[in-house]
Amino acid sequence: MSIYDFTVKDTYGDEVPLSDFKGKVLLIVNTASKCGFTPQFEGLEKLYTELSEKGLEILGFPSNQFANQDPGTNEEIRNFCLLNYGVSFPIFEKIDVNGDDAAPLYQYLKKEKGGIAGKNIKWNFTKFLVDKDGKVVKRYASATTPEAIRGDIIKLLG
Amino acid sequence: MEVNVYSIPNCPMCNVAKEFLKANSISFIEHDVASDRQAAKDMIVKTGQKAVPVVEIDGEFIIGFDQDKMEELLGL
Q: Which of A5, A145, B13, B23 has minimal CB crowding within 10 Å?
């Protein structure tokens, strides 16, 4: 079983095999499902803009499992949202990351890299780093900023 | 009068725009641009941008929720 055996769906319902991303360094992130500005989206977009040509791909999976705990501040004030959350890396169909209905990809990621306090995803923007051979090498908590992961990504890009 | 609303789920201001139309008994066609690829393309081509909601009133586009502009174009 490898990460390349999984297939996910884009926001239009079309199937995307993860084998499409063979040979890339992947950062897999469960994103907030609400629209609006968050510094994490901005940081991820920056990483993507800088490193996508060198072989980084960021895959975003919106999940509404933390929606009720969303502090919801900035997004309420703005009078618009951006399609695809205003980022240029791929955003996929909304999924569950925890529980019986958790997407198979997330069951696999959590099995490969459990968190410090158990396997479950605690919050939006938990990140999994996958090397060019498909190995899940590291898991980062929500609070870890995209900037803080940059060094690890660059090492894997080689 | 033809009114189209381009929106995405979980977008507070998209909901406000739709509620405003409903409260004023204005019927409209809703396009979920997160799940309808063709509608998304149309919206981007017609408006040259990716922000939602977009409210189209008889061929005129309002980007974001702008109550004053909506009232003006709807003659409210």
A: B23
The pLDDT of residue A29 is above 70: yes
**Model-level pTM?**
0.80
Which residues make beta-bridge pairs with B31? B6
Domain holding A87: CATH number? 3.40.30.10
Looking up tokens 């709807």 gives B74
Q: Alpha-carbon torsion A19, B50, A31, A103, what sign?
A: negative
Closest-CA distance, B1 to chain A, in angstroms, reads: 24
Are A81 and B11 a contacting pair at CB < 8 A? yes
Interface mutation vs chain A, best among B10, B35, B54, most A CBs within 10 Å: B10
B7, B32 in Cβ contact below 8 A?
A: yes
Domain count, chain A: 1
Q: Is the ipTM of this complex over 0.95?
A: no
Indicate which residue of A16, A35, A154, A157 is catalytic: A35
Whether residue A81 lies in the annotated active site: no
Residue A26 pLDDT > 60:
yes
Please give the mean pLDDT across all residues of chain A. 88
